[in-house]
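SAMPLE LOG
Freezer: B-3
Tube label: C17
Construct: single chain, 594 aa
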Amino acid sequence: MKRYRKNHLSALIVGLWLISITIQAHPITTAKCHALITTNEVSVAISVYPESFYYFGDLEMDEEPVAKGSAIKKAIESHKEFLLKYFTIENVSTQKLAGTIVSVDSSKAAETGISLDEMLAAEDDPTVYLISYPLKSPPHVLVMYQDFGGEDWMFPSMMELTVQQEGLPDGKMEVLDRGVPKVVGFNWVQGVGDKELTKKELEKLQSDALERALGIASHGGVYSFIYIADAEVRHEILLPLRTLETWQPIARKDNQILEIAEQVAAKEVVREFFNGMNPVTIDGIEVQPVLQRLDFYDIDTRDLALQMEPKRLRAMMTRVGIILSYSTKGPPDEITVDWTMFDDSLWKLQSVAVFEDESRKHVFEVGAPPFKWTREGKKARAKVEEVAVVAPQASSALVVSILAALCAVVATVVLAVKRSPAKRYLLPVLFVIVALAAMPVIRERIGGVASMSEDEAGAIFTALHRNVYRAFDYSEESDIYDVLARSVDGELLEDLYLQIRRALVIREQGGAVSRIRKVDILQGDMASLDGEGFAYRCKWLVEGTVEHWGHIHTRQNQYEGLFQIRPRDDAWRIVGLKMLSEERVGSKISLRRF
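STRUCTURE (predicted):
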């Protein structure tokens, strides 16, 4: 038996690698599990990717951010207890089987370390845990659960499960969703083990197991995120279709299938339903929601923030993503959000509220106070000031020039009347020289540029460039235009607004507009200087983020352009722009850490 056990544990690893589903970079944690069932043991190989140590194990990252090999080894060790706690197997009598970690096959990242980007994209570098569950007799029914993260975990997690009975080929790979039990029946040789159950009896066991897990399944399966911004309050709700239908049925011909046309028709039904649910007040006024997005996802969907192409779905394996927007009509001071959708399966709901870079949890319960947010401190607004054409010596130069010219005229007249010798005319000549010397400064004051250093041009351009992107801290289009007009002039104003706006839209996320997080000037120099102003060539990087359901999508775009800078009404303005290049240089997905 020991020899066989060693052999079939080795076979588990092979079977695990043969599960043929591609794992892409995604913010939903996924593990793979291959379970081999014998007459006296359940042997389980669970493949865990480095991202799970980051999400579940408080994996320490340095500032890069990079996880060192020593930190990964520590996380691998602590994950043993996590798996034994959150992956469970029950027998037909609902008794949990006791598991023991047999071995751990570490990933190569434990030796080399791994960056956060590499971690989220890892597809072929798992750590494999082998777990043994002894059996007293051959099982005819086993119930498997995974509840990775526990009740306080705010994000979907799933396991790709393949069950193989001794002596038979691998079973079909299925997705074991968090908190949703999987009942598996086995057919052994006659006379071995308990009696074989009929299909009807197996279905009854599945139903009973689901009912036992319903509190966990629905509590873990419904997610609420409240986003607070100057322009809107956004309530994002992610829940199983079966849960939504306990409150609002979705019409469909086939109880098992949700057709594309039925998904489209459901939008109006869902919109009407939420008009009367979960009231939101902004500065004391109750505001009705606008249904911003309604998406239906199958259970294999990795990235729930993406805009999905409609397709036929199995109703029991469908999640619904609902985004409700509440207009604020300006930066709010006080917001309350309530949750009224309770029943026997959902008696409390944990939510997360996000304001700028801050977040806090709130638990909705029957009879409990609603979520309340109050602004602390003054309302933050973008600080944008005009960049003045500074010529501090201009006014004094003008006075000096005029006085010198007058003195030259007076001195010349006096010397002429007195018929003074020629050498005395040196004085009016000196006055003329002083008057002419002050003229370039005067010319700069009235609109020309006689001279400018590289540093001066760089300072002017940097201020104008910063102002352009600060304008997009405002939410209303009219406000953005007003702020842009302080740094941009002429026909370029509208063109630049539309160009930046287009760059901030992430189409694959339903046309969401990303929030500008960082703008870095990588390289810049004055290209030319003339009497009217100067040209400046610049290469810069813009980083923006979009967040849905706690999943943060970050995108970096790099640009290079030639700007024309001119004085307008005593202030510098960008009056022309020729884009030389534009490219996406980076994107990543991460989870908000609470």
